[in-house]
Amino acid sequence: MKKWFKAGFALFMVAVLIIPLAACGQDKVQTVKVAEVTRSIFYAPQYVALEKGFFEEEGLKVELTTTWGGDKTMTAVLSNAADIGLVGSETSIYVYAQGSNDPVINFAQLTQTDGTFLVSREKINDFSWDQLKGATYLGQRTGGMPQMVGEFVLKKHGIDPKEDLEMIQNIDYANIPNAFASGTGDFVQLFEPQASMFELEGIGHIVASFGTESGHVPYTTFMAKQSYMKKNPETIEKFTRAIHKAQKWVESHSAKETAEVIQPFFKDTDLSLIETVVDRYKSQGSYATDPILDEEEWKNLQDIMDEAGELPEEVSHDTLVNTEVAEDIMK
């Protein structure tokens, strides 16, 4: 009886000690609401961080929402519907120029090039940019990074977007691929996987990469309101560390391995197509290998915006970019 009592008491004490510890551990898990501008293979490292449990390792529970638009993403952040936004850095400049007393700060870069490709209706073996002169070109939304980068690249190759070709911009973003597939336009600027899908289906042919042509820019970054970052410095640090783990994982693993990990986020896309897209983005250096948004990239962004006539005012790097968090977690 005494032995039974001692054994039972010991088990009771173990339970008494373990349950509070487990509850304590649960209390340390913090929920972070993230709004992504769109669902895209372009953001592969983010999905790797989610699927590989890198956020959980940092004690974070990430609730991801797709907002389908830069303006909607920024609205979610500004209204506190989201803690962190994944969107183009140009949006933080637009908000700042409107006189915000709580600016949105870029703290971790995810992609470092444009993610669009030039697709031709006809197969062109020896493509040159001057072949666009006189052609009909399906562009992107005015003021958005894809269109600004597109115009920047065209001008770089001596093409005036307003004079040398017929630029069509009155089609909603979601309907641009359908418009091209139905016969509108000689060339179109498309994201993946649509560009590769058109190649597979014989609808179009990828002839150039805007990401390669435009150089490094902070195309999509994680950002949060300055007030949120000041109130939650440890959360921002943990979040950035998880993203950096994912960046290193993608860099050190094959496109096939990455595709297999992120496939749950693209259930309607064939695995081989995901692999093709990951390989294309990885080979041209679109995935940032670290979260630091440096001054040269920031300058390139504003040069592109200025060239497009969309830069409301020049903003210094240290005003809207925080690299200290990224630098600290990389030490």
C-alpha termini separation: 58 Å
Number of discrete domains? 2
What does the overall shape look like? globular
Query: What is the topology, as strand order, of the major beta sheet?
Result: 2-1-3-10-4
- Work out the helix count: 16
Summarize model confidence as the mean pLDDT.
Answer: 92
**CATH topology name of the largest domain:** D-Maltodextrin-Binding Protein, domain 2
Percent of residues in helices comes to 40-55%
Signal peptide: 1-25
Subcellular location: Periplasm
Domain SsuA/THI5-like: 44-252
Protein name: ABC transporter substrate-binding protein
Task: Explain what you see.
Residues 44-252 form the SsuA/THI5-like domain. Keywords: Signal. It is found in: Periplasm. One of its GO terms (cellular component) is periplasmic space. Belongs to the bacterial solute-binding protein SsuA/TauA family. The chain is α/β, with parallel strands linked by helices. The chain has 2 domains: 30-113 and 217-330, 3-Layer(aba) Sandwich (D-Maltodextrin-Binding Protein, domain 2), CATH 3.40.190; 116-214, D-Maltodextrin-Binding Protein, domain 2. It is built from 16 helices and 10 strands. The strands form 2 sheets. Strands 2-1-3-10-4 form a 5-stranded mixed sheet, sandwiched between helices. A 5-stranded mixed sheet has the order 7-6-8-5-9, with helices on both faces. The longest helix has 27 residues, at 2-28. The N and C termini lie far apart (58 Å). Mean pLDDT is 92; it is low at 1-26.
